[in-house]
Amino acid sequence: MSKGLGRGFGALLPGDDTGSESLVSPGEAVRLVMLSEVQPNPEQPRKDFDEAALSELAESIREQGVIQPLLVEPWQGRFRIVAGERRWRAAKLAGLTEVPVIVRTFSEETRREIALIENIQREDLSALEEARAFRQLMETCGLTQDDVAKKVGKQRSTVANALRLLRLPEEMQKALDQGLLTAGHCRALLSVVNDSLQQQLFRQIVDDGLSVRESETRAQRASGLGTNTSTASQPNPVQKTQNADVADWEQQLIERLGARVSIKGNSSRGKIEIHYLSLDDLERLFELLGVTSEA
């Protein structure tokens, strides 16, 4: 019995499934049930489970048991999993006959919400899978970006940045899924509003193997940065030859803010330009910079 429950599971319950919100209340009753009496939820949003990862978890369960109980609800004389299907599958692989569970009843909306949140928190999702999970959580449960951020224990800016990836054309999303693009490349592409120029930059990234910094530089050119007529006729050599430290700071700001950033000037004075794509994007930048509305 101690093998099935594992060590110290009670101390691991608060916040372990969702990060910011605990699915299990401290002191809630844990019981052992036959593995055969537990069945997965057919509406589980996560359909594919990595076999190698499941094998690793099964090996851990053989050594320590199922440390965190499954969250289940009564269902047609048995129990249906609300959270913990990955642990249930791994327990089967490990040869267990019993698993620890906490039994509770849920509304349909709460059940869907918990299943989505658990997948976001506990699976190694790709950038696009995470973005799609955020969107599904918003659409299925009627949540705002702020709501999602609180429920999954992430900053709102992280959620907003992820959702921006879904604005990319399908071809570019596939390239991201296939590892041909990184999230940094995608930020550069998203900063190019013109569809034709965006497609041109995409082909250059894939065909020429551009780095993120090279992609950002070409994105800035494509968006017409530095083409102001008051300065175009009088090029400033100090601005053109950017200090290496300044270039590094510029890149760090680009990566930190998820937006096009340019630092112009010299060692004495200059300016920082941050570009946004919409009012929502501007709000996201304000949040990152710690600027709050007084309204």
How would you sum up this structure, described in words?
The chain is of the alpha/beta class and 295 residues long. The chain has 3 domains: 2-121, Alpha-Beta Complex (Conserved hypothetical protein from pyrococcus furiosus pfu- 392566-001, ParB domain), CATH 3.90.1530.30; 125-163, no CATH class; 168-226 and 238-288, Arc Repressor Mutant, subunit A, CATH 1.10.10. It has 16 helices and 7 strands. It has a 5-stranded mixed beta sheet with strand order 1-5-3-4-2. β6 and β7 (270-274) form a beta hairpin. It is elongated and about 70 Å long.
As for the number of domains, it is 3
**Rg over C-alpha atoms, rounded to the nearest angstrom:** 24 Å
Shape: elongated
Number of DSSP E strands: 7
Please state the second-level CATH architecture of the largest domain: Alpha-Beta Complex
Q: Work out the helicity level.
A: 40-55%
Distance between the termini: 57 Å
CATH topology of the largest domain: Conserved hypothetical protein from pyrococcus furiosus pfu- 392566-001, ParB domain
Mean pLDDT: 77
Weakly predicted, low-confidence segments? 1-22, 226-241
Number of helices: 16
Strand order of the largest sheet: 1-5-3-4-2
Kindly provide the name of the CATH class of the largest domain: Alpha Beta
Strand share of the residues? 5-15%
Question: What is the string of SSEs from the N terminus onward?
Answer: HHEEHEEHEHHHHHHHHHHHEEH
- Main beta-sheet strand count, sense and barrel state: 5 strands, mixed
Report the oligomer: single chain
